[in-house]
Write a structure and sequence with these properties.
228 residues; alpha/beta
Length: 228
């Protein structure tokens, strides 16, 4: 609970994966990758109910063996690589009604902790925001990124930078969404169908070393190294 509001956490884990086949079940430090997200969610006291949304029988069986509910099997139209996360999340919330806040947790962020989940929820409440997402420091500052015009000349990707040759120590803070935790008020999510809206969504900062989002074998090896 957050105040008097009930919290539903949804782990989204479809069977298909182009970049790293069967990645949600790949071994990671002695357990299936999905186990680390399940364990973090189970240790987060603010979560009232934890469920899995998956189309894959093996993922469902694995999650259930780890104590995670799988009250339904996701439909094929929400299991393709083009299905939007927000639609998957709202489908789960519709199937398991009675909650006020929903948390999206992806198995590809195994270094996220229960404290990160709690921290994102607490920040949303403290800020009076309708949603919150986890972020980490951007690996390349947007003021240092350029495009090219029709003649092939450099143009600042972010116009506000003014094309200046910034020193890194002079740059304002810049963050990227790291994919580890998304939190939203369900009424707000239904109305806007977005998990992040500038000017409304709060940003919970996580350290870079816990912010690996696994999509490739290199990502998996990086996460294993950082977890040591």
């Amino acid at each position: 609970m957050i105040g008097d509001r009930s919290v539903l956490a949804v782990i989204t884990a479809r069977g298909g994966s182009k970049g790293l086949p069967r990645k949600n079940l790949l071994p990671f430090r002695g357990a299936p990758l999905i186990a680390w997200t399940i364990r973090a969610a189970q240790a987060a006291n603010s979560i009232d109910r934890l469920i899995l949304s998956s189309d894959d029988p093996e993922i469902i069986d694995t999650a259930q063996s780890l104590g995670c509910e799988a009250p339904f099997r996701r439909t094929p139209d929400l299991s393709s690589d083009t299905a939007a996360s927000v639609d998957v999340l709202l489908d789960a919330a519709d199937r398991v009604p009675g909650h006020d806040i929903v948390v999206l947790l992806q198995p590809t962020s195994p270094l996220r902790t229960a404290g990160d989940i709690e921290g994102t929820l607490a920040l949303m409440a403290a800020a009076g925001a309708p949603g919150a997402v986890s972020v980490s420091e951007a690996p390349c500052h947007p003021y240092l990124i350029f495009g090219r015009d029709a003649a092939g000349r450099m143009t600042p990707f972010v116009p506000d930078s003014g094309g200046r040759a910034w020193r890194r120590q002079d740059l304002p803070p810049a963050y990227r969404i790291n994919g580890a935790v998304y939190v939203a008020d369900l009424a707000w999510l239904w109305a806007g169908r977005t998990l992040c809206k500038a000017g409304e969504t709060a940003a919970y900062e996580m350290p870079v070393e816990r912010s690996v989002d696994i999509d490739t074998l290199d990502d998996l090896h990086t996460a294993e190294r950082l977890a040591d």
